[in-house]
Each structure stands twice: as C-alpha cells, then as structure tokens.
C-alpha cells in the first residue's frame, strides 16, 4: 500500500512540474533568435537554422524563392513560413495559408524543386492568428520581403516567417552570408524595422 502512495506522489509531482513548464510565458515574437552577424554554432546553439542546415542548403540547386513558388503553385493561397530542413537529404518546408483558411505544409526537394510531400495541419490552423485576408491585404508579399532582406544583407534567405502584429503583419527573414546569419524584420509595407 505504501508503494502505491509513493507512486501517486511521484505522479502528482510530475504533473505539477509539467503544468509549471507549460505556464511559462512564451518568448515574445519580437525577440530574434540570433544576434547580429553571429557566427553559426554547432547544433543546439543559436536559432532554428544550424551550421549543418546551412552547408546543405548551400549545396542545394533550388533556392527558397523557388521552393515558395513550387508550394504556392499547388493551390490557392500564400506562403506564410518557409525554411530548409536537412533531414531526408535536404528539402524545404513551406507552409501555405489557403484562401479558405487551411494551413498546408509542402515539402519541396532542394535539388529538383518538385513538391514531394503535402501535409495538412488542422491543429496549427486553429492556433494561428493569421487569416487569409491579413496576408492578402499586405502591400508587400512574402516573396518581396524575402528579396528585400536578401538585398539588404547581401546573402541568401534561409528562413522566412509571416507574423501577426496587432491588426497587421510583419515578416522575419533569416539571411545567410558565408558563415554568418542575420535576422531582418520588415513591416507589411516592406520597410525594414529591425536588423540583427
């Protein structure tokens, strides 16, 4: 009987710990994950894009813009997030917000530029605050924001995300140049509002 009491005590402690961890405030959407011009460190340091990802992406024959074009050509909607993933030989993951509000992730082969997998994300579409009208009403598209950021940083875009900011959107673009990364934030009009 005493063993059962100990087991319940451990379970209650683990549950309390899990709840405490989920109640921690999420990082602000305005906090870039990389410092200005920071060198890319080993896996586990810095932001979402790692040194191995960068090396594999530099070997890719398809760029992020081409991957976005391939994903958007699969249906009606606009890309709201795109990045390079090294798993499975290297591919881009492009999330497209459909005109009907559905969120779909397209895996685009980094060598051929072909869409190799499509996944629907019903949970994410529920959690996202982005609506198709938000993306459609922006004066600057994700593609244009990406091109502006690449020109500003003199490099190649590795990641791009649309963020919902109050009643408008903004873009966060991670650009690589050599072994360095820079985050550039743009508003819905394509104006650079932060560069780190």
TrEMBL record:
This is PepSY domain-containing protein. The keyword Signal applies. Keywords: Signal. InterPro entries: PepSY. Residues 65-119, 144-189 form the PepSY domain. The keyword Cytoplasm does not apply. Residues 1-20 form the signal peptide. Residues 23-53 are annotated as: Disordered.
């Amino acid at each position: 009987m005493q063993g059962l009491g100990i087991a319940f005590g451990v379970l209650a402690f683990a549950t309390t710990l899990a709840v405490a961890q989920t109640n921690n405030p999420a990082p602000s959407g305005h906090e870039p994950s990389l410092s200005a011009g920071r060198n890319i460190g080993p896996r586990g340091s810095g932001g979402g894009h790692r040194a191995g990802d960068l090396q594999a992406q530099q070997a890719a024959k398809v760029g992020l813009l081409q991957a976005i074009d391939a994903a958007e050509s699969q249906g009606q909607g606009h890309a709201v997030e795109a990045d390079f993933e090294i798993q499975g030989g290297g591919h881009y993951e492009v999330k497209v917000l459909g005109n009907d509000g559905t969120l779909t992730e397209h895996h685009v082969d980094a060598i051929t530029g072909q869409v190799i997998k499509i996944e629907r994300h019903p949970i994410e579409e529920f959690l996202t605050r982005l609506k198709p009208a938000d993306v459609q009403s922006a004066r600057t598209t994700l593609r244009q924001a990406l091109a502006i950021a690449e020109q500003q940083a003199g490099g190649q875009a590795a990641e791009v995300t649309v963020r919902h900011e109050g009643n408008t959107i903004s873009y966060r673009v991670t650009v690589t140049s050599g072994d360095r990364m820079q985050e550039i934030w743009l508003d819905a009009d394509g104006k650079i509002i932060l560069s780190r």
